[in-house]
Amino acid sequence: MKDYSVKLSILKTLSQGGFHSGEELGDKLGISRAAISKHIKGIQGWGVDVFSVQGKGYQLAKPIQLLNQDVLQNNLANNVELIPIIDSTNQYLLDRIDSLESGSVCLAEYQAKGRGRRGREWVSPFGSNLYLSMFWRLDAGIAAALGLSLVVGVAIVEALEDMGLTSVKLKWPNDLYYQDKKLAGILVEMSGQAGAAANIVIGIGLNLMMSEATQGITQPWASLFEVAKNQEIDRNQLAITMITTLHRTLDEYERYGMSGFVEKWNRLDNFINRPVTLLIGSKEITGIARGINEQGAVLLETENGLESYIGGEISLRFRQ
Ligand code: ATP
Ligand code: BTN
Predict the structure, then answer these.
(1) Could you report the per-residue pLDDT of 48-94, keeping only the tens digit for each?
(2) Separation of 131 CA from ligand 1 center, angstroms?
(3) Which of 41, 52, 103, 173 is least enclosed, having the fewest CB within 10 Å?
(4) Cα-to-centroid distance, 126 and ligand 2 (Å)
(5) What pTM, to 2 d.p., does this model score?
(6) What string of H, E and C letters represents the secondary structure of the chain?
């Protein structure tokens, strides 16, 4: 693994606030001012807004609260690994499935290859959002994994409500929405054979305070700080709440499946009773969204009556 310790030390100093000169940073790390300037460029490439003022040095445009391995581990029973710079937290766990305990968690500050469904990109700038994944061995097997992203989505929205962060909704099958903009995505990936236990990795990307200048997102998006208005959000505490919620939800899902789940989903469905289009490969089906059924299929009122659709190849789009 590449050594990012110099860049991470610079970020730790900058995250304390105020200006820090190239000379001060260089002395601290035993490298030249020119080397610091090069590292700052690399840090900017991770999506961190660092600016410099002649005679004063470098400063973060917005404060960053870094994640802390000790704080996370001391507050969680799960095995937690914070790897600040990573390709993808989902991929990291998928690569280690044979040696992991169920419930193991990986978090990152920056993902170079964060991904969404069907290989789409998940934009993951440093320090401004949450990127976390949990490994789970699901004895019931792959078939039982289908409803997971729905169940996890509801549990996370409910946990946010408990924190006073209301008006967050869900878009079938795996997105959290706020005011018709994408706030978070859930990605469930797995390996395993039919009939055997499924090895599942559940990844969550939740925007907290992403900069408006973020490139590469092709649809409207939101950050949790908009939802929070003036309420302060502690990133470590939020990560702990997300992980605890995820663990409890997986435990309950193994025991009770999706019973009693439809009402919970429908209360939070962002598109219920609104006109939508379902994209299934090159096919488009239009209708009015009517929530989900007990199998977790999306329900659509079309010219032909109430129809249900399920499967990983389906995308739902709002129709104005
Ligand atoms: P679907 O309905 O098929 O899930 P989707 O457009 O939401 O559609 P996903 O694969 O779920 O697609 O998510 C990836 C998409 O999310 C990307 O194509 C991009 O437009 C958007 N995206 C990427 N990063 C972020 C982010 N940090 N916040 C919000 N949206 C993002
Ligand atoms: C989606 O909306 O399609 C799902 C996005 C999931 C993003 C998270 S961030 C943590 C984990 N690691 C990844 O590479 N993806 C998921």
Answers:
(1) 999 999 999 999 999 999 999 999 999 999 999 999 999 999 999 99
(2) 14
(3) 41
(4) 15
(5) 0.96
(6) CCCCHHHHHHHHHHCCCCCECHHHHHHHHCCCHHHHHHHHHHHHHCCCCEEEECCCEEEECCCCCCCCHHHHHHCCCCCEEECCEECCHHHHHHCCHHHCCCCCEEEECEECCCECHHHCECCCCCCCEEEEEEEEEECCCHHHHCCHHHHHHHHHHHHHHHCCCCCEEEECCCEEEECCEEEEEEEEEEECCCCCCEEEEEEEEEECCCCCCCCCCCCCECCHHHHHCCCCCCHHHHHHHHHHHHHHHHHHHHHHCCCCHHHHHHHHECCCCCEEEEEECCEEEEEEEEEECCCCCEEEEECCEEEEECCCCEEEEECC
Q: What is the pLDDT of residues 303-318, one digit of tens each?
A: 999 999 998 888 999 9
Residue 89 in contact with ligand 2 by CB distance below 6 A: yes
Report residue 185's pLDDT band, with 50, 70 and 90 as the boundaries: very high
Average pLDDT over residues 242-254: 95
Q: Which pLDDT score, from 0 to 100, does residue 194 have?
A: 67
117 lines ligand 1 (CB under 6 A): yes
Which residues carry out catalysis?
Answer: 117, 182, 317
What is the CA(313)–ligand 1 centre distance, in A? 14
Which among 89, 118, 123, 314 is the best mutation to test ligand 1's pocket, defined by most ligand atoms within 8 Å of the CB?
Answer: 123
